[in-house]
Amino acid sequence: WSEVRGTDFDLRIGETTVDITGRERTALTVNGSLPAPTLRWREGDAVTLRVNNSVPGEDASIHWHGILLPANMDGVPGLSFHGIRPGESYVYRFNVRQSGTYWYHSHSAFQEQQGLYGPLIIDPREPDPFQYDREHVVLLSDWTDDSPERVFSNLKKRADYYNFNKRTVG
Length: 170
Description:
Strand content: 25-35%
Shape: globular
Radius of gyration: 18 Å
Largest sheet: 5 strands, mixed
Order of helices and strands: EEEEEEEEEH
């Protein structure tokens, strides 16, 4: 998937047809990417992220998981802002006060489970005291053709619903 660097970002939440299991399904994506693009920031920079919701009939959001920022930039509807209505945009603007590897994802409905998530890397202000030839981003995820609402309902009825082989350790 792609990586975007800098301090100024335009992100579009939309629907994209994917074929992960041999059947076409609709995923929620950022800039058409599943997972969403890797965002790369630098500690000490001020970032601006313009997020447009082009998903018809559904509010959206992006939460910057583990990032130290003002409450109204946290991206949790009902807690820190109202969410991003269809066809509208929200501008996240804050100073990056840390470095490390994080992720971002939706906090609206079951959008994260439909693909709205991505990696976030914040480079330290000072360069690393070592060198390396390459870097790998590992992002673990899961996909099912079932709706997230159905998965949630099944797990609420029986926690081991998807545990086909049962326990591996006594």
